[in-house]
Amino acid sequence: MPNRRPEPSCAGSPTRHAARSFFLVCGALAALAAKPLDAQTLRGRVLEQGTDSPIPGALLLLQSPEGEEVASAVSGESGAWVLRAPSAGEWLVRVERIGFAASTAGPFRVAVGADVAVPLEVSSAPLELPALTIEGESGGCGLDPDEGEAVWRLWDEARKALRVAEITEGSIAYLTEVTERQVDPWGTTIGREHTEMKTTAGRSPFRVPSAADLQARGYVRDSASGGLAYYGPDATVLLSDTFQESHCFNAVAGGDGQVGLAFEPAEAPLRVDIRGTLWLDAESSELRSIDFGYAGLRQRSELGIGPDASGTIIYDRIDDGGWIVREWTIRVPIDSRFYGGRNYKLYQETVGRVTSTRRIEPEDGSPRRAPSVYEHGARRDTTGS
Q1: Which DSSP state fits 248?
Q2: What helix, strand, coil percent values describe the chain, rounded to 5?
Q3: Rounded Cα gap, residues 30 and 238, in angstroms
Q4: Separation CA 60–CA 83 (nearest Å)
Q5: What is the pLDDT of residues 234-246, one digit of tens each?
Q6: Range with the lowest mean pLDDT among 70-74, 162-166, 301-305?
Q7: What radius of gyration do the chain's Cα atoms show?
Q8: What is the pLDDT of residues 26-55, one digit of tens each?
Q9: Is the model more confident about 100 or about 16?
Q10: Where do the domains of the chain lie, and which CATH numbers do they carry?
């Protein structure tokens, strides 16, 4: 059995003063990552036509002549990219850029063990998202370009950002601040609050089970700690056939220069599902955030939870063009308090904020997965230090 290099590990919870050391260690571990032998590679830079300016954050897809995708990458700050072909032969390189039309170059003939330079220039003419009325446009259930142009256009742009985020997470070390607190309906902190710094490398700090697991067991479920675990959708879940085939989509108008792609379960859920909206910048087509709530919570009222649990996921482009979850919030009702002659709900709120990132060398191009976003336990104390 061939020897395998151990995976770099940077798990832990450093103090703020240890953050710099954390990133130095992660960088050193990443430098030890072995590169596969006898791999066929295609590499180059993505440049803008007419200016030769580098294009960071472009999605590169290696495809067979029949259009089958076999590898993917994201261009870096200088526009540089590398794709590894699984075998010798002829390959196409497709370039997708948020807010711009896609283009395909090739085919390129690649010999065994060859390293092929591929020049790529892409158009600088931006696409325009469709104008939406307040009623929006229904795209039906599942995602089909024949069901509604506005829905398909919005999804295609959101998909690019989600794919870039999925690839980026495998090559980033994160320093994340996670705060748990109890708040009133207006967001004012009441009583207990706890904040800690967490580190992850090669995987996003915002992590959930697979789409198949979420569909089978639900987005809210009993946790090992004796309380409830709440989950939101990550990029891999949203991109999955399982999610797309089990939800209906609708284009909606929004404020503050945004347009939305709303989603909801296609059928009344047997287990707790999610509904929500992906919000895109109407001018740049960039995915800004996802607001979501839970469908089917009323059927689980015996668990002591209400239907108004909700969450928000905020996406952001980092300096070298990668796309990450910058911040997420999940708020769930846990209790009520009598004040001023009325009962007010109290909420447990968890907020995660990525405060620093550092690029590390990915072990391979594949995204990694993991457990819960937030576990609402049996009223555990989170007294701040």
Answers
A1: E
A2: 15, 45, 40
A3: 29
A4: 8
A5: 999 999 999 999 9
A6: 301-305
A7: 22
A8: 544 444 444 444 579 999 999 998 888 999
A9: 100
A10: 35-126 (2.60.40.10), 166-376 (no CATH)
Confidence band of 130 (pLDDT split at 50, 70, 90): low
Q: Distance between CA 205 and CA 281 in Å, rounded?
A: 24
Stated as kind and residue range, the H or E segment containing 243 is helix 241-245
Could you identify the residue written with the tokens 């004796």? 226
User: b vs e for 257-296, b when ≥16 Cβ sit within 10 Å of the residue's Cβ?
Assistant: ebbbbbbbbbeebebbbbbbbbbbbbeebbbbbbbbebbb
Q: Give the pair of three-digit tokens for residue 197.
A: 């710094």
Cβ proximity of 185 and 347 under 8 Å: yes
Distance CA 73, CA 70 (A): 11
* Of 203, 180, 182, the residue nearest 191 (C-alpha): 182
The reported pLDDT for the residue numbered 70 is 94
Q: What single-letter amino acid sits at 327?
A: E
Residue type for position 311:
G
CA dist 321 → 75, 76, 159 (Å):
7, 6, 16
d(CA 131, CA 294): 29
- Residue 306 in this model has a pLDDT that exceeds 60: no
**DSSP sequence for 198-238:** EEEESS-SS----HHHHHHH-SEEE-TTSSEEE----HHHH
Question: Any bridge partners for residue 357, and if so which?
Answer: 174
Peptide bond into 107 cis (omega under 30): yes
Q: Using CA atoms, how far apart are residues 128 and 280, in angstroms rounded to an integer?
A: 12
- In whole angstroms, how far apart are CA 242 and each of 149, 212, 215, 237, 371? 22, 6, 8, 8, 18
Rounded to whole angstroms, the Cα distance separating 150 from 280 reads 13
